[in-house]
Amino acid sequence: MRSSLTRRDLLAAGTGLAAAAALPALSGCSALAAADSDPDTLVVHTQLGTTAPGSPTYLAAVDRFQKENPGLKVKNLVNGDDLGQVYETSRLARKEADVVMVNLYDKTLAWTDVDATVDVLPYLEDWGLRERVLPAALSAWTDDRGRLRAFPYFATNWPVAYNRALLDRAGVDEIPTTGDALIAAARKLRAKGIAPVTVGGNDWTGQKLLAQIIQTFLSPEEARHAYSTGDFGSRGAREGIEYFTTLRDAGVFADKAQGLTSDSMTTQYNTRSAAIESAMSSALAKVPPEVARHTEVGGWPLAEGAAHARPTVIRAFTLIGFWISPNGVRKIGHVEKFLRFMYRPDTVSRFITESGRDMALRTDTISTDFPLVAAAQRLGSEVSEVLLPDVYVPPAATQPLITATSTSFTRGTGAAKVRAALESAYRSA
Q1: DSSP-derived 3-state class of residue 237
Q2: Are residues 122 and 9 both part of a single domain?
């Protein structure tokens, strides 16, 4: 089960006209211009630079870096969710950026394997930066052949946010920690015209919550097997799917959740239209102060017989890393200066204090201006952790799983059909 990117002849192709013609525009400049011919210009392909959380801090960091390194310029090429595709087509023409800032997910899983990017472990060790990285992050970014795909940078906590004021208004006295309590709370909330759990059932946010709920009855090893192979036929996986459909058909999720997106989810929670959301750090950082004051963070409620001792959260260290391209190897001296700067404690601290980002690096800095992010960081023995499936799902199955997610959030779809939809997403992988 491998991505189409694994066809080495695709990436080994020359810079013919067909390849050039296929390249899309990139933030106002052609992707073919990515590999700057100026040896003193470092080209960084990034998802930071517009409205993505942390963008102002990143751009300010680049400015400071250039001031500290006169004569060395940084050229940012900015993309959103299409960054992976844009990078691949620029690599096809040997015009890729020197450094890429993106998460480990979907297409990027195959990059190191097909020489689209290089193993950075030797650089991490030679530059003395290994001790800056949290061990769990180092493990998460290392493939099964011992290669470090990228320099870890952003991490995320993914707890559940509960609007205590809305729960109180509906007569819900305690944060629900069991499925039965969650169903009871949903009924009370609906009686007051308040949506219970809002979720982007039509995009990645719904996919992650569905995966989290399915893991209620799975050990980490069983979850790895299910999401690596698409085999959801084990007893634990079937029980997790049944738990999900029970919650769904009991009205736990917002109406028409199968059509909602991450944007509509955050809007519903941040405007007090919904009482509960499964929110990663970047979403928690955007909760308005007047809502954050009444928000508590915790885990997803468990069902009887769960494989976990406490309500669950997702914690992941693969949100953004610094990948080095073959072009970047040619400018490795500049790349070293840039990554040393980005790994500096003062630079890392500013992402935490100014942007509310969780980091995959060692730091004592706390998000004092982002209380919900800080509260999620403090969740320890109160919660159990489940796997983020991203690094296990074959790239070819990623988008089909989103379609399967929308099907799953459609009320009335039986557990057997949910399982069939999930497994069918893997058939083309």
Answers
A1: helix
A2: yes
